[in-house]
Protein 1
Amino acid sequence: MAGARVADILTALVAAGPAASWPHRLVEGCRRATDMSGVGLVLTGRGLLGEVLAVTDGPAQQMEDLQFALGEGPCVDASRSGDSVFCSDLRSDGSAPRPAFSSGALEAGVAAAFTFPLHVGSSAIGVLDLYRDSAGPLSNGRVSEAVAFADASVAVRRKPCRCGCARK
């Protein structure tokens, strides 16, 4: 089932337009499918934050900038560990290992953050960050959707293939 959902997401991206629009279309599709306030797609390397590939409107860019500036947050944790990080209530998470991020997120109106690592084999190459303006856990259905979008994100490329194939 998960593979079929990933295929549906990728098929929709291809049908929607040129490859250059795929990262933005992917985060926007994820935001709608998971009912989040914002979504960010970040490439990472060796456990460090790298490049913001795409963000939705709203708090996503602000949250990515905050994590880059602070060097802490769920994106940083997931990038280092390769595991998903769920912060379903940043108010109660304030004394956890990311107090500055939690404080900044709450100030920006973000009450919950969920990060899904992007894997190629055993290597984590990035993360898909989901932000919500209300606290509370993700339902199983929303987790499944987020995982499918994270899996589809691995196939989204910023630069075209040199061979000129359809994976541009």
Protein 2
Amino acid sequence: MKLRHVAILGALLVGGVAGLGSAPIPAARAATPSKPTISAEASAALTQMGRSLQSQALSFQARTLRVYADQSGELLHIFHTLNVTVRRPDRVLVDRNGDDGPSKLVYDGKTVIVYMANANKYVSIPVPNTIEGMMKVAMGRLGVDFPLADFLTDAPAKAFLSGVTSGQVVDTSMIDGVPCLHMFFSQPPGIYLELWVEKNDQSLPRRLIVTYRSLPGQPDFVAEFSNWNLAAHPADADFVFQPPAGAVQVALKAPVAAPAKAAGSKP
């Protein structure tokens, strides 16, 4: 997915920001693009998902489990709960809580701010006035990836399939009593995606698993989605960051190279 590796939200709010939290897992190398082979059933489900997620404003919750390497190289797991609000074309709010404490991402159309509550520090980055542009710039500055980013773009289905070479429906599964299509996709080199969407007219995502088979330990990223609201009405004030008392703004170092695009960690 195009934004899976490029996106900032996940690594910022799931993996961490250098100097502010735990480090994200490394990106896999990109492969030479090839003509994708996607089954008709999987393509139809993704197309409908994309239409649903193109709502002008939406919100959802995601519970995530991610692997990261500690200083000795051991793979550890970190849990987070994210409450995400999006207002197209240029507003995003993510409130996150988890094993490493609460944090927040606020994008107001001009600036993206990432705040880590435990350290009472935040970074501020000037960014373009589109959600996708914001994620690309922020990812490049922070060197992070966000597997959920595709769902926030203006074309979610297209973003999800960017870099994917094959995909098909595996089966129908029940998630919290709701029938869901279980789909499997591959994105070279060595990234595999499993996506469950509701088997109905909305095809909302209910679960995502990204497996990085080309990385040491073959780490996974797991997300379970709930509380979808495709008719959200966030106010302008929801996307304004007010620094808490004593909060310190952290200056970023020189921009780092963007991770190579790979499916699962898609930008």
